[in-house]
Amino acid sequence: MAFTVAIDGPAAAGKGTVSRAVAAHFGFAHLDTGLLYRAVAFRSLAGEDPIAAAQALVAEDLEAEGLRTQAIADEASKVASIPDVRSALVDFQRAFARRSGGAVLDGRDIGTVICPDAEAKLFVTASAEVRARRRWKELVERGIEAVFDEVLAEVKARDARDSSRMTAPLLAAEDAVRIDTSEFSIEEAVAAAVAAIDARLAG
Ligand code: CDP
Ligand code: CDP
């Protein structure tokens, strides 16, 4: 049985955390599509042409160390605005989404462009301040020096770029269930997501 859960939302909203928990709960496979763009960004910063890098991307690239930095995130949102980069990554994502046994994909355009027919769509969001606080805490816990105001500015700049691009902008699908996690613990956010997906599985 193929069953696709599409989870979209802005940076550090909790998409990855919710996606991993939902995948474990339902026994579905999970793909963090941000890693595709981060892997292309990594190669682009090393001097490769981003379109060629996207066309040559292989699964192993997604396991590269060092994809979780602010510099890579920033470059990822730049290469992600190139239409040929995005189109090179479509087939891989769609094949993953339709694998048997169910799949959760999280990103920016899963419910709108990659999987418009997904059985369940969630839009996970939170205020920019809450998201920046979470990302800042994450960096500090990993021993990376970070200034909160700079993290907030980076998150806002990336959201603005992601929302305003011409191709596949960050956007909630009309039929997505919106989950604002600003006031939620991780457990509450996961419970809200599981309930929304249960409703679609039942329906
Ligand atoms: O994938 P995305 O960038 O949307 O976010 P994430 O990596 O899942 O979450 C960013 C950080 O926020 C992580 O450190 C989570 O543990 C934390 N988080 C949280 O504190 N409360 C939530 N309700 C969800 C995530
Ligand atoms: O973890 P965080 O939410 O901060 O970022 P991410 O999900 O790893 O995505 C990094 C960047 O890749 C985003 O800012 C987007 O520009 C781009 N991206 C995209 O355009 N489409 C996706 N489906 C996923 C990510």
Automatic annotation (TrEMBL):
The chemistry this enzyme catalyses reads: dCMP + ATP = dCDP + ADP; CMP + ATP = CDP + ADP
Q: What subcellular locations does the record give?
A: Cytoplasm
Q: Supply the EC number(s).
A: 2.7.4.25
Read off the Pfam families from this record: Cytidylate_kin (PF02224)
> What GO biological process terms does the UniProt entry carry, in alphabetical order?
pyrimidine nucleotide metabolic process
Q: Where does ATP bind?
A: G9, P10, A11, A12, A13, G14, K15, G16, T17
Q: What class of enzyme is it?
A: transferase
Indicate the segments forming the Cytidylate kinase domain, all copies.
56-197
Q: Does Cytoplasm show up as a keyword for this record? A: yes
The protein, known as: Cytidylate kinase
